[in-house]
């Protein structure tokens, strides 16, 4: 790297760190070393030519000034840098418009800093920009004409103070778009409804689809459904000038609403009184009415079940699967956490809905007596003979693996089927991958660790249960839960009907397998694991993508076009994960999702391929490799 470039980089860093007034834990960034030879912190260089490819200095508590002129006015840097990442510091901006000279820039990330004022118009001259992240700052004023950047894929600008209207982006080209929590006003431009309301929420004067508040007319700004009519802020003259017809109309609505509320309250009171009466007559009714009282804590089961249980109250504790009659009893399997658990306690415990899946709902239930928190799954539409169910539970109860979440108790009657698990406090892999706040990273080695752990656990289960024909049947990232040590655990093994992603007809009864279906179940698990690997690699959700394809089909089509690197999660690219090993894992995933079940590898082959990649990753001291291959 030439001397001019080194001097400029040093002054760039001086500015960032407030002229070295802070001590920042970085190596290099001095006049005496070469950024590419001495591996300056946050610098990635090209392989062939010793020039700077990316500068990433995030979360270093830098509280000086980001002055792009120091680097973008130096030709050798301006024509080589593609990534600038400075997120999560305390930086202000200076000479920001010089950023336009860094013409090769594809990624600019300055999320979570202290930038204020207008975004410079020159930003829209960055023709190569693909991802612009400026969220959580204090930018004000109109957005520059960013739609001029034809290749922009991600625009992340939430939590600022931008105002004016949203420019007409080419929304079809955007993958991520977020302008929530700003002061934008007016109609959301055409095509903006490709994104969900969360991309726009928190802009009270914004209107139109996908937001619930409709625009009044062509040029009108927002009319939020519950907008306070007494707003007297400047610019609200239209609202203050509400016509008498409108006042009459709103009063009419209010009167009708009031009448409805009175009728409902009257009915509720009447019902409450009737209940009160029966309370005195019947113990079970007493229990029910208490539960229905508005002040009672919500629980998770129906009142019919409660009465049935309260009247029968059979509870079997310990390893009682063999001996217990199945109907109307909670069968507590071997788990020290829930020993002594009584069904009544479970039923009465406060419950909170965690989510509804295809096969039922899951509740978080706090059992104070046991000092434990459980997750109870209520299964819907499960017409399985109780004895088959009991047999399967018995078999599954004998196969234990540290990364497999066991059922700790279950209940099975004609009315209800419940599965009880220990509550896992750290959510699911799905949430970790797709529900994390922007910028929070799930790094490559952790992803590889998760992949290998799941594959190992699945291999163990397949080995143990192959002869019984019990595959997982519903493997997906929302069924991979993270325990208190953040280790992945497979949940719901062998309990559900299969997710029929292979479009092969299946029986409804998971206990009546023939040989082909047996094999099919295991092969379906391999495909499901392949999809999880693809989620880990791409960071994308498994469902249908914007282009109408599911994740596996999309990845395979991109790879066929030889655009392999395009599929990887940008967070991994930014982090500098080894492209070679990502490609290796991608190859494993593609084998797993092969359309033909017979062409898919066995779980032992998959586990061993992933382990090899992981071991290679651990061995490598990959400090000089170029992780970036961003196509221009
Ligand atoms: N033991 C548990 N601890 C913590 N959260 C759990 C537990 N079991 C399930 N959950 C969470 O509860 C939510 C609903 O789970 P559920 O299994 O019903 O959904 P799903 O996996 O999307 O669908 P399904 O399994 O029915 O096809 C999910 O977010 C899941 O991660």
From TrEMBL:
Residue numbers binding ATP: 377
Protein name: Protein kinase-like domain-containing protein
Residues in Protein kinase domain copies: 348-613
Gene Ontology terms for molecular function: ATP binding; protein kinase activity
Taxonomic path: Eukaryota, Viridiplantae, Streptophyta, Embryophyta, Tracheophyta
PROSITE patterns tied to this protein: PROTEIN_KINASE_ATP (PS00107), PROTEIN_KINASE_DOM (PS50011)
Pfam families listed in its UniProt record: LRR_1 (PF00560), LRR_8 (PF13855), LRRNT_2 (PF08263), Pkinase (PF00069)
Membrane-crossing segments per the record: 247-269
Record organism: Artemisia annua
Keywords: ATP-binding, Kinase, Leucine-rich repeat, Membrane, Nucleotide-binding, Repeat, Signal, Transferase, Transmembrane, Transmembrane helix
